[in-house]
Amino acid sequence: MLISEIFYSIQGEGRLTGVPSVFIRTSGCNLRCKWCDTPYASWKPEGENLSIADILSKIAAHPARHIVLTGGEPMIAPGIHELADALRATNYHITIETAGTIPRAGIACDLASISPKLSNSTPSPEQIDAAWITRHESTRTRPDILRDWVSFDASQLKFVYSGPRDLDEIQKLISDIGTPIAPSDILLMPEGINEKALAERQKELLEICLVNGYRFCDRLHIRLFGNSKGT
Ligand code: SF4
């Protein structure tokens, strides 16, 4: 399995914010978000081929019970189900961070952290060729697959918010999913990979969350460490 990085840090987003966790970042993604903050695991996937035994050995070096399977898109990584089974057998708490474009297919998981990509993610022709733009657009939201992910016992829907038009898109997608979702399980986080950008969108986003009952989602790792690899 191509692994971009394995590191020990705190969870910076979502309901487990602040929890010490080992992050296993698989390399490779079926999307090409224009603002992707891990291009080394998506646009230009790099990493090391590790066996499940190698991965278990690396994470055992850290005093954490929480594991985050992230990417890239971890659900396209060959062997991801076997890795999740091995983590479950070792009694780890497993969070899967996914864009929700690949079926869950019963993967072992304790928290599904689903981050559907809005149209603000679509790359520009200056960034990538037309074929990839078409592929990104046709893949980025799959209400049928999202319906299955949000029906999981513990799930959170996390959206990157970059401006007012995103709200309509978020609410349309939630309607298309067609399953009751508690507003407190809908998380909105500001787009931005530095404190200044986060601050610019924060006030507007707070108001939207208060009006709709959505959860404001900070990006604590950006505030603590900046946009740096391994955090
Ligand atoms: S889905 Fe995630 S990893 Fe893939 S391109 Fe988008 S932001 Fe990057």
Task: Give a description of the structure.
The protein has 231 residues and is α/β, with parallel strands linked by helices. It has a single domain, classed as Aldolase class I (TIM Barrel). The protein has seven helices and nine strands. It has a nine-stranded mixed β-sheet with strand order 3-1-2-4-5-6-7-8-9. The radius of gyration is 17 Å and the shape is globular. It starts with a strand and ends in a 6-residue tail after the last helix. Iron/sulfur cluster (SF4) binds next to loops.
CATH architectural type: Alpha-Beta Barrel
Overall CATH class: Alpha Beta
Distance between the terminal alpha carbons, to the nearest Å? 21 Å
Total of helices: 7
Say what the CATH topology is.
TIM Barrel
Low-confidence stretches: none
Tally of extended strands? 9
Bound molecules: iron/sulfur cluster
* Averaged pLDDT: 93
- As a whole number of angstroms, the C-alpha radius of gyration is 17 Å
How big a fraction of the residues is strand? 15-25%
Largest sheet: 9 strands, mixed
Strand order of the largest sheet: 3-1-2-4-5-6-7-8-9
Shape from CA axes?
globular
